[in-house]
Amino acid sequence: MLKLTGISKSFGEKKVLENFSYDFGEKGVVCISGASGCGKTTLLRIISGLEKSQSGDILLSGTVSFMFQEDRLLPWLSAWENVACVLNKKSAERKARAFELLKLVGLEGNENEQIPNLSGGMKRRVAFARAIAVEPDILLLDEAFTGLDEENRKKLSSLVSEAAKDHLVIMVTHDSEDIDSLADRVVAL
């Protein structure tokens, strides 16, 4: 469950969020849209606890996972190790779960590849697999489908829809097609 009340955030003189309130609920896909610089990423960072608001309250229950605009993968690790590093399981179980998730996002056969050897779209899918690996109650996605071809975009879109049946997914996107196909609710900033 996630509810924000009266959230405000400024960077110097620039007000990014002013008295923002919204009850996100417990499940479904909430798409956040708006012009560049209007506070979409800042809102996700506040929800995740990476950024502090200057005022307002956050009522949040459950675990949160964040897929950033940038892949933020560890280049010295393989694809499966990047996914496994967030799992709190025994070594063999972590590896098996990482391989399972990479297969789910279409990276079967690439599990042992080092991150610098992967294409941009492959890196996005590793980052997505890592974000869903912890099975969060709230999944934050910041431009998750950027750089993906149509086939992989549909694959991840399907995984988002599946996750939203039992969990809350908050997705920042500029793509009206994503909003039309995925959003249960839309927040325009």
Task: Please explain how this structure is put together.
The longest helix is centred in the middle third of the chain and has 14 residues, at 91-104. It is globular and about 50 Å long. It has helices spanning 40-48, 79-84, 91-104, 120-133, 150-163, 176-182, and strands at residues 2-11, 14-25, 28-33, 55-60, 64-67, 138-142, 168-172, 185-188. The chain has a 5-stranded parallel beta sheet with strand order 5-6-7-3-8, with helices on both faces. A 3-stranded antiparallel beta sheet has the order 2-1-4, covered by helices on one side. 34% of the residues lie in helices and 28% in strands. The chain is of the alpha/beta class and 189 residues long. The protein has 2 domains: 1-63 and 138-189, P-loop containing nucleotide triphosphate hydrolases (Rossmann fold); 72-135. The protein has 6 helices and 8 strands, in the order βββαββαααβαβαβ. Strand 6 (138-142), helix 5 (150-163) and strand 7 (168-172) form a beta-alpha-beta unit.
Task: Give me some keywords for this one.
189 residues; alpha/beta; Rossmann fold
Describe the structure concisely:
The chain contains six helices and eight strands; from the N terminus they run E-E-E-H-E-E-H-H-H-E-H-E-H-E. By secondary structure, the chain is of the alpha/beta class. The two termini are 21 Å apart.
Strand fraction: 25-35%
In the CATH hierarchy, what is the class of the largest domain? Alpha Beta
Note the run of SSEs as H and E: EEEHEEHHHEHEHE
Largest sheet: 5 strands, parallel
Provide the spatial order of strands within the biggest beta sheet.
Answer: 5-6-7-3-8
Please compute the radius of gyration using only Cα atoms. Answer: 17 Å
Rounded to the nearest angstrom, the distance between the terminal CA atoms is 21 Å
Shape: globular
Q: What is the count of DSSP helices, taking H or I runs of 4+ residues?
A: 6
Share of helical residues: 25-40%
